[in-house]
Amino acid sequence: MSAVPGLREDCEALLGAFQEADTVRFERFAELWRERRFHTVFYGRIRALERSKITKKTLELAQQYFLPPYAFQIRVGALYLLYGLYNTQLCQPKQKIRIALKDWPEVQRFQQDLMDSQHYDAVYIFRSLRLARAFHFTAMPKLLNYRTKKKIQENEFKEEFKEPSNRVNSLITNDVLEELMNIHDHYQKMKCVISADKSQPDKALSLIKDDFVVTLKDITLEHQEWQQNRMKMFLNAKETDEISNKKEERTSLESEGSERASALARIKYKSYSAVVE
């Protein structure tokens, strides 16, 4: 739950509009930011302590959309959102963006994807945040307090922003591959018909690779395997985090039980000493 009522809805509306724009350009995001006057999100006559708390919660909310399982475009939008919020906050010194160490490899892979796709405006924004030391690397995604019994609330993922897991598989099915193979065979035969040598097509007509369908199938299987491995890594990291939380909770309970037993033993000893005297 966000510290400011309606903040989650406003952030999701901005990211949703950016998704509908069907682009990852910072220029378009900046237009949407200005249209919604997002720079005023921290305005208001509040005390420094409250302002610091609200800023921290706001950055924490925006950071959720920067990590999987959200779609690539939403994650780019979240990067721009974090950049805007970090630079328009009123706190001095500035509140930083918490990044758990377990999430940092995923962030680095995302940066590499941006560079490979030549989205240099997004790469520039990310490096600007790095140079400004805007990231606070932490052991846990959220701040933990000693002997806190309150369960950490799980993030609510917005389904519309998630990356479709079977988009490639839904487009390139076995039926589609079979149909492509039939079309490709027919295409090869037609080239032979109009060629001087009827047994094989002329080299001048070689406008497409002979193993096109096989290559497409291999690429599809490779993408499916990559996606499964990536999701497995994400689930393993989440499971490790949950196990760590359970161990800490169990250790805390055992420590508390040991302290209670020691306190009872001291009381009994004092009572026994008083009776003997």
TrEMBL record:
<feature type="compositionally biased region" description="Basic and acidic residues">
    <location>
        <begin position="241"/>
        <end position="259"/>
    </location>
</feature>
<protein>
    <submittedName>
        <fullName>SNPC1 protein</fullName>
    </submittedName>
</protein>
<dbReference type="GO" id="GO:0043565">
    <property type="term" value="F:sequence-specific DNA binding"/>
</dbReference>
<dbReference type="GO" id="GO:0042796">
    <property type="term" value="P:snRNA transcription by RNA polymerase III"/>
</dbReference>
<dbReference type="Pfam" id="PF09808">
    <property type="entry name" value="SNAPC1"/>
</dbReference>
<dbReference type="GO" id="GO:0019185">
    <property type="term" value="C:snRNA-activating protein complex"/>
</dbReference>
<dbReference type="InterPro" id="IPR019188">
    <property type="entry name" value="SNAPC1"/>
</dbReference>
<dbReference type="GO" id="GO:0042795">
    <property type="term" value="P:snRNA transcription by RNA polymerase II"/>
</dbReference>
<feature type="region of interest" description="Disordered">
    <location>
        <begin position="241"/>
        <end position="261"/>
    </location>
</feature>
